[in-house]
TrEMBL record:
This is Extracellular solute-binding protein family 5. It is found in: Cell envelope. One of its GO terms (cellular component) is outer membrane-bounded periplasmic space. GO terms for biological process: peptide transport.
Length: 531
């Protein structure tokens, strides 16, 4: 969830706002943080959820990190050099960086981690994030060997990276969790290394002390961390709470210091009382249609369902949390060809909101006038009060506007993710948070074979456009091509955009020093409690 290079940040700086609280008297102790779900894994090469990335951001550290200004900063690498053509990076690792077991963090660990994330055998959903490396995509598709991938340990503390092409936001990508290192010797001999505090070895500011499934994770300062002197908290208690009402109740009873979730109906009050704060976030919530399963293998049916939703009613009347109605996939906050222009504003609205007349006509043309004869439809969402609120509102809109009865099914996070991965759904709640400051971070999701292509969409014309975006160095060409690609997605009704994010976070007044990035990552390394 990030991006960088020196010149690149002329673009990215337009966008971002992080948060790093100030100074004052400090006290040690522990911070209680509510995660919205239990991480499916905390192997950074495999994870996909926000909950997992939040935990990993405390346990691991990439070559770079994202600072309070949402810019890349030195982390495991103390400095780097970039070639004149922008396609080669040389990173110089800190010689005092150690793993939590005391072993040195080496360039070989990074090389191993990156190549293993790309390995076809690991089948990482985020492998495509490594396609920026020379021959990364070819290796992942079994068309080249690992030896040809553009990452090489020159020596223990020098890592050479060769890219397929200049990538202005690569320094930001280097802070993303798929680019974290893993301990080569431990990981290569124990495939379950990340499942237990006894075997998990990280290089970040904290270590995992306890993991009680469906309850909590406990983290403690990592005494081997190179910057241990600036880690403030004695303990982090990460509570695994998927019930938003419970989170607010515990927060108001002083049983929590920070929390990611809250009922949509409570957001206005919590913001007004300054118990929660809104943070800009590069994110979009949408429903994905399974384009390979009836009745949503018919684009007219998908389009009818897409047009029959009143997004303004969702955001203003139902959610009430500062969200913005979405009429496309890519959210505001990303620059277009001209840095002072916003991609979303240039692209405009790509679908008409609440176009009931057209929706009914399309459904009839598909053979289902007034919804008659339509196979049973189920909408799947992961357990959350706000997701339930949206699902019930959309369910009622589809009933009123299309005459369609839709069954709602909610599932615990891991079961829900498993069903998405197996394409065992018809319509499913989905979302995406940008990983770096370029619209391609959203659009590449729907490329054929992408590990996060939830709808199972495949369109050769669309794939060709994504390849043009990846290979062109002309920003005008890239941006226009991405506008064209987004239009294809909306015309094909692969997804139903709902709203763009503005993310509320529960925070006690006494909590200072944390960083919340525009990509949704929370860094607690510098967090402390002010007396």
């Amino acid at each position: 969830m990030q991006k960088k290079s020196v010149i690149f940040w002329l673009v990215a700086i337009v966008l971002l706002t992080g948060m790093m609280a100030g100074c004052g008297d400090k006290e040690t102790g522990y911070l209680r943080y509510a995660l919205s779900a239990e991480p499916e894994t905390i192997d950074p090469r495999k994870s996909t959820s926000v909950a997992a990335s939040t935990v990993e951001a405390q346990l691991f550290e990439g070559l770079t990190t994202i600072n309070e200004k949402n810019q890349p900063a030195p982390a495991a690498a103390e400095k780097w050099e970039v070639s004149a053509d922008g396609a080669k990076y040389t990173f110089f690792l800190r010689k005092n960086a150690k793993w939590s077991n005391g072993d040195p963090v080496t360039a070989q660990d990074f090389e191993y981690a990156w190549k293993s994330a790309l390995s076809p055998e690991l089948a990482s959903a985020y492998a495509y994030q490594m396609y920026y490396l020379k021959n990364g995509e070819a290796y992942n598709n079994k068309l080249a060997s690992a030896d040809t991938v553009g990452v090489r340990a020159v020596d223990d503390y020098t890592l050479e990276v060769i890219l397929e092409r200049p990538t202005p936001y690569f320094l930001s990508l280097a802070a993303f969790h798929t680019y974290y290192p893993v301990h080569r010797k431990i990981v290569s001999t124990d495939e379950r290394w990340s499942a237990s505090p006894k075997t998990l070895v990280g290089n970040g500011p904290f270590i995992l002390k306890e993991w009680v499934h469906n309850n909590k994770m406990e983290l403690a300062p990592n005494p081997q961390y190179w910057d241990a002197a600036n880690v403030k908290m004695d303990k982090l208690e990460l509570l695994l709470l998927d019930n938003a009402s419970t989170v607010v109740s515990m927060f108001e009873r002083d049983q929590l210091d920070m929390g990611e979730t809250m009922p949509a109906s409570e957001v206005p009050r919590l913001l007004r009382e300054k118990k929660a704060f809104l943070y800009p976030q590069l994110g979009t919530d949408y429903y994905s249609f399974n384009v390979n399963q009836a009745p949503f293998d018919n684009p007219k049916v998908r389009k009818a369902f897409q047009l029959a939703v009143d997004r303004d009613a969702l955001t203003v009347k139902a959610l009430q949390g500062g969200q913005q109605a979405a009429y496309g996939l890519v959210p505001p906050g990303l620059s277009d060809a001209k840095p002072d222009q916003d991609f979303r504003q240039v692209g405009g609205a790509l679908l008409k909101d609440h176009d009931v007349e057209t929706a009914r006509r399309l459904l009839a043309e598909a053979g289902y006038p007034e919804g008659k004869g339509l196979p049973p439809v189920t909408l799947l969402y992961n357990t959350s009060e706000s997701h339930k609120l949206v699902a019930e509102a959309v369910q009622e809109m589809w009933k009123k506007n299309l005459g369609v009865q839709v069954q709602l099914t909610n599932q615990e996070w891991k079961v829900y993710v498993s069903n998405l991965e197996q394409y065992d759904f018809q319509v499913a709640r989905d979302n995406w948070l940008g990983d770096y400051a370029d619209p391609i971070t959203f659009l590449e999701l729907f490329e054929t074979g992408n590990g996060n292509n939830v709808p199972g969409y495949s369109n050769r014309a669309y794939d060709r456009l994504i390849q043009i975006v990846r290979t062109s160095n002309d920003q005008s060409v890239r941006m226009q091509t991405m506008h064209d690609a987004e239009k294809i997605l909306m015309d094909d009704a692969v997804l139903l955009p709902l709203y763009f994010h503005s993310s509320p976070l529960l925070v006690k007044d006494k909590v200072k020093g944390y960083i919340r990035t525009v990509f949704g990552t929370v860094y607690l390394k510098g967090a402390y409690l002010q007396q």
